[in-house]
Amino acid sequence: MRFRLYFKFFIFAAVLTLSREAAYAQQPAPDPEQGRQAYLDNCTRCHGPTGAGDGRDAQRMYPHPRKLSEGVFKFRTTASGTPPTDEDLYNTISEGLPGSRMPDFQRLPEDIRWQLVYYVKGLSPAFQDQKPEPLKFGTDPGPGRANLGKGKELYTKLGCNACHGNLGRGNGPSAATLVDQWGAHIDPADLTQGWNYRGGSAPRDVLVRLMTGIDGTPMPSYAEAVKPEEVWDLAYYVHSLQAQPQWKREVEAVKAPGVLPAGLEDKPWEKAPRTDLALTATFYRGGEIAPSAVRAVSVQAMYNESEILFRLSWHDRTESRENVPDAAGLAFLEDPDLRWSAGSLRAWPAKTGGPQPAVAYWSAASGNAPEGVSPLEAAARYDEGEWTLLARRPLQGKKPAGFGILVWDGGNSEEGRHRSNSSWVKLIFKD
Amino acid sequence: MKRALKFGSLGLMVLVLVAAGNKPQEAAAVKPAEAAPAGGASISGSVAVTGSVPAPEKIKMAADPACAQKHTAPVTAQTIAANNGKLQYVLVYVKDGLSGTFPAPAEAVTLNQNGCMYEPHVFGIQAGQKLEIVNDDSTLHNINCQPKANKKFNIAQPTQGMKSVKTFDQPEVPVSFKCNVHPWMAAYAGVFSHPFFAVTDANGAFSIQGLPAGTYTVEAWQEKLGVQSQKVTVADGESKEVSFSFAAK
Q1: N or C: which end of chain B has fewer CB within 10 A?
Q2: Chain A residue numbers touching B156 (CB-CB < 8 A)
Q3: Does the pLDDT of residue A19 top 60, yes or no?
Q4: Structural domain count of chain B
Q5: A-chain residues within 8 Å CB-CB of B158?
Q6: What is the pLDDT of residue B36?
Q7: Which domain holds residue B231?
């Protein structure tokens, strides 16, 4: 009897929410014990046993794991302030949240994922107090019919640039003062970094975020301002801002006969191969992660007989030249074996002594390299949320076998070990 | 079997839909019959502030020219607005002691965004009464409202002249409104089940009219300085003077 009731309810729910996938119509009946067990096995480590966001590893993660007990969900297809649909939760569990520590749970059978959905809903009163109000998103015109020029106009007209910046780098005039619902600073998304869009980077994902807003963050819902069919062009435009990263584990330095290009935008740079390096933050203050702001750096390199020139560029929401300045370091592995003895770049400078990589340092404040590092001879420019740096290093005797990059965002008060680090990358000198 | 179940649930759906359709919308606005008789008593007075009040901070609007161009004089924060020891923007209201129901007025309360400031900064509204939120600026505002007892929302108003209508179902003090684009913007509402509330003016004065005779708990709420409360008894037709005093740190 109970089973039949549940079954009826779910058919009913499926019909009401007009689920887009046939699979959703096959939601299993809730099995609270199975849900509880799956939650304990898969979720508590981060979200905590009661969903209070206080799991064993929670403090070491940024973004912090969601307080499921609070019932504020970012990624929904529903109106601002209303809870997500079952499908929304199912999709988050199944697909994970890129750019965060939330993995996808494809490895779990679909049945178990549904049990997790039911269990998570039971952790917060939000699902009793409010019903989800699913929004409509219109019809995707497809890339061929989307009007990017119109999308670009909408980007400014709807005020996207106020936070996300004119070129989408997350450096708008309001970016520095944004706070989330809990009073903590929050960065607007860098829209050029598609891999970092938590809710997915496809045009439809962009449109859904725009219409629903991202609850708990400053991102508002535009559902009362525009009709979905009016903003597909904008969704495609935002999608078009996403860079195509060249993730590699090595950098190819190109041989330049004679003089190296001294200008940041000199012609030879256009053809030099580019490597994009993801940067990670691993600095903890009192056991809690202090997030770093810079996520990636692009690298090119050219060399001649006497020196090597690196062209680095990275997105930084604020130009900081005083107090805590923006800065970058290049750590060189003169000896490839140093990679093993020096350990990860994030451990630099090592507290225990031993062999150290040679770090050359550039700072946006004029000429004050910290103790123990050599200044990096560099030309730099900050423009519209991006630093571009041309760094010169003499090549004497043995060429470095590899290097790594350190970036400090002064606007995020990053100093010392509070910074973004790359992994070690191989440096290949091409003839 | 499966088919039968399907039809069963279809029936259930229809039933639920019909039930939802019959549910009276905004019940508070359509039941004048139950209205409590308005009285002739009033409570008025003023709110003072003691101690040293810091000079209000200047608001820097330069980052958004659309905001700055609407102001000729410098704009200062309204957080603690004192004038000769009198306190503006204090919400004074009957907290307890009323009986009966008080229908929400049909006319809406307006919350305007003008020159990147909320107008009014503090206001009262009845549960079920319409709140019209208007953007009078040619720039993006978001209205981020996260009450505890009422429905939350965070909506964008990107264009000048845009209007959104919201209602709050439950009494709650305060309900705050924030704009993340312009972080200095803040407005506060008190949502009440009755019309007996007022906000102090530049001289710290308030007046609550039309009260039935009775003994009431009257509260004064200030966004930074908290809540003061006192018991007040009024006879029918009586005008009572009441004063509150907050201590600034």
Answers
A1: N
A2: 158-159, 213, 220-222, 224-225
A3: no
A4: 1
A5: 157-159, 222, 225
A6: 59
A7: 37-247
